[in-house]
């Protein structure tokens, strides 16, 4: 149940900067990290997922959504969620996985595996899925598109949230969601768009999940998004071990560092951090359900969020 983490190293950097940052001041109102990768270890400390969760709990992070990026990590995510009450799972094939799997004739088989995992009760999202044209050229885009559309179908079939990975493909992602129909609960993970994309999300009720990037000095577009986004459509995440917030940018990220991002957002919006944390927690539970309860299942229509009692 606790497989060896995937170790990521960064050659050429000061090894001292690969230590995890210190614990922040605890939040007085808890919040969730709605997108993290506990199976990946970074830097000089290969922290066990349980230690990661204990650190998070100690500073007011109530729970996490552990996100798979291929069939193996999606299975791991579902297994951990089944035994750890602070974890819910999201399962998917990352868009960059699709072209390689397709070339090997394995894409359909792996999509079928994701569909099986999506039926498990503590799997609450399909993700991260979407389109990524940063690393994938024209020859791989058809496989990405097919994989994305199948993930959307799986999410709707199982009445799960959808976590979008969108890199250099904003318009294509939006076009796909509008053409095939977005799931009722759709989240743009690590939102990287501008005001124009934010306005589209607002129009369709899609959630915008902000990561540590919103704290970066050059993240002017993201802060302009905060100026117009309804608080009811905002979420927060780490995408750990990546995208560590200021003042520890460049060092390994972890769910326990969420308070830095939350306080930076609250300061920019001139909001009480307690009020912001309460709103973000409410939003997160509206998307994934409560960590200690049955999953959200629509009963009578696309806007009915009554939880199943079965």
TrEMBL record:
Binding positions for a divalent metal cation 1 per the UniProt entry: 35, 37, 128, 239
Any single GO CC term annotated in Swiss-Prot or TrEMBL for this entry: cytosol
Record's keyword annotation contains 4Fe-4S: no
Protein residues bound to a divalent metal cation 2: 165, 189
Tree of life domain: Bacteria
Pfam family, one: TatD_DNase
Record-linked InterPro entries: Metal_Hydrolase, TatD-like, TatD/YcfH-like
A GO MF term: hydrolase activity, acting on ester bonds
Protein's UniProt keywords contain Metal-binding: yes
Keywords for the protein's UniProt record, in alphabetical order: Hydrolase, Metal-binding
Stretches the record annotates as Disordered: 1-29
NCBIfam families reported for this sequence: YchF/TatD family DNA exonuclease (TIGR00010)
Protein name: TatD family deoxyribonuclease
Organism: Mycetocola tolaasinivorans
